[in-house]
Amino acid sequence: MTDVTVMPDRPAGTPAAPAGNERRGPRRPRKPFQTQFRTAVSPHQLNTARGRTVYWIVLAIVVVSFTAAFVFPLYWMVTGAMKSTEELNSIPPSFLPLHFSLDGYLEAWDLLGLGTLLGNTALYAGGAWLLTLAVDVSAAYALSKLRPVLGKVVLALMLSTLMIPPMVIMLPAYLTAKELPIFGWNLLNTPWAIWLPAAANGFNVFLLKRFFDSIPRELLEAAEIDGASPGRILWSVVIPISRPILGVVSILTVVNVWRDFVWPLLVLPDSDKMSVSIGIASLSSQMPQNVLVASLVIASIPTIVVFFLFQRHIMAGLTGGGLKG
Amino acid sequence: MTTAGIPVASGRGRQPTSRGRQPTRLRRAVRRNVTAYGFLCGALICFAFFSWYPMVREVILSFQKTNFVDPPQWVGLDNFRTVVNDPAFWPAWVNTAVFTLLALVCGYGIPFVTAIVLNELRHARAYLRFVVYLPVMLPPAVSVLLFQWFYNPDYGLFNQALGLVHLPGLQWLNSTSTALISLVIVSTWMNMGSGTLIYLAALQTIPSELYEAAELDGAGLFRRIWHVTIPQTRLILLVMLLLQIVATMQVFIEPYLLTGGGPENATISVVYLMYQYAFNFGNLNAGNALGLMLMIVLMVFSAIYLRVSRDNTV
């Protein structure tokens, strides 16, 4: 189920009304509310005069309170970065900054070295994305289509990691990164310390395997008869038809690495290797408030942009993948 | 699943085998397995190093004394004794439990009620869904540091807003009585979007007929919610409850960035104490012992979750 929530603009049965034109100024002889998609509130009650009044009041309250709760803090953040320290401290706070200037942002960029931090984070997220796709897709393909001996056990072991809360194994995992068993390499302060654990993601394997399971076997057999090797089948048949799930897994991976805090805090202690969250947090106490706030704005821009672009994928991943554990 | 398709394919292959074409079949099976494990090896390495081995090592290290120079010594329950005798031990557990409870009241109840209301609205739906999910997309460190500024008793947004309506400001993070609830507020703000959208998706799968039937039987709005909406979303509610308990019991970033566990241990959490043992007190084994205790507690919830979701999704 991807996006079941989209309301049809024009209900099939109701007399055709110009959809959505009269959103705000409700002219009294009005079109009836949607009744095709029925919810707890009775459509008959909703279309009475009293029902409509209550509806508009509730709608107004919800819109105003949502804006106040979720948009206003962000507005305060963006404008706070433009205010001077004195202005930030003034007691009736200024709703609009007195002077429009981007100096706070420029200062934050230089003082915190945000260029380096963002570059690091992009490197971590990009590498984790490539490695996760390579590793998890081939693993899910092997488990779903090649079905080796002990494949079920391997799958069960991978899924069992979903039951282990990540925080409780963070200390031994940190030791692994500090000295990789067998090889003895120290991965601290290297991108591998982010990339390898990111690929060990049971949820991705689960999502991908479930999708691959739904690919009809005949399709792969046809390719096999044509003489395609398993690798070739994966590359030319499976991956092209798996675009939707690959999109979901990609976004989940990139966003998770970008947002992660605890793990990079442990494995990237060097200040010039830090991810952007860690860098800002480690310098937060030494910065003037407006510079700190400006850096918060800059750090959140990438994830917000990703959200704008891939909103549907993200919400699909949330509701489609999140529950069938 | 594809199990329905397999018998056709492999059934055809099995017949000739019994008549003695074993070598090719065996060779083919071997080759298939080698290929499969070739595809699997990357994942096996990643999981082995960063999931499976740490899981085992978590247990081992809890019963050892290691300094990474000398060979480790088995010390029985010494690490557990160290941790339990720490004056911060019980506050950490109590805070974690209280935080989880409060976060459930806010972070579990509010999204569900919000979802029910959103489901009734016919306008501005895309906007509201977008907006409620916006904080979820911010890096948690950003949200937490943003609220640190809002909580500032002198020039923070919250006290300024209280001042506007002539109410006295609060100390927020600096007072033992409000510190923990302040953390709950941040946590709810930045996490409630996902819960809301998941409930909303669940609400939309409820068949209209149920509401119509309930209405014909004379059930009012609240009885319809009580007797139709909640039973129909029962499974998701239960799953989300368990997931949220497991997630919030691992609270770390809020106390780490906002309060450092203070004032007077009022906000110290189990994971934060574990972090302190490993990185501030230099006693990694005690940190592991604490982690193992938390793991056992959380595994109970995880096991229930597994049972619930397995019994119901097939």
Describe the protein:
The complex is a heterodimer of chains A (325) and B (314). The longest helix of chain A has 33 residues, at 114-146. With 325 residues, chain A is mostly helical. Chain A has helices at residues 43-46, 49-80, 85-89, 103-111, 114-146, 151-160, 170-178, 192-199, 202-213, 217-225, 230-241, 243-259, 262-267, 276-283, 289-321. The two termini of chain A are 15 Å apart. Chain B has one domain: MetI-like fold (Orthogonal Bundle). In chain B, 74% of the residues lie in helices and 1% in strands. A two-stranded antiparallel sheet of chain B has the order 1-2. The chains are: A mainly alpha (325), B mainly alpha (314).
Features:
heterodimer; A: 325 residues; mainly alpha; MetI-like fold; disordered N terminus; B: 314 residues; two-stranded antiparallel sheet; 14 helices; 2 strands; flat
* CATH evolutionary superfamily of the domain at 108-321 in chain A: MetI-like
Q: Provide the low-confidence segments of chain A as ranges.
A: 1-27, 321-325
Biggest beta sheet summary of chain B:
2 strands, antiparallel
Average pLDDT metric of chain A: 82
Q: Which fold does the CATH topology of the domain at 108-321 in chain A refer to?
A: MetI-like fold
User: Helix- and strand-based class of chain B?
Assistant: mainly alpha
Looking at the chains present, what oligomeric state does this protein adopt? heterodimer
Kindly state the percentage of residues in helix of chain A: 55-70%
Please give a quick description of this structure.
The complex is a heterodimer of chains A (325) and B (314). With 325 residues, chain A is mainly alpha-helical.
Question: Any chance you could write out the topology, listing elements then pairs?
Answer:
The complex is a heterodimer of chains A (325) and B (314).
Chain A: H1 43-46, H2 49-80, H3 85-89, H4 103-111, H5 114-146, H6 151-160, H7 170-178, H8 192-199, H9 202-213, H10 217-225, H11 230-241, H12 243-259, H13 262-267, H14 276-283, H15 289-321
Chain B: H1 6-18, H2 22-62, E1 64-65, E2 73-74, H3 78-84, H4 89-120, H5 125-137, H6 140-150, H7 157-164, H8 179-203, H9 208-216, H10 221-232, H11 234-248, H12 253-259, H13 270-279, H14 284-313
Antiparallel strand pairs in B: 1-2
Helix pairs in contact in B: 2-14, 3-14, 4-8, 4-11, 5-8, 6-12, 8-12, 9-10, 11-14, 13-14
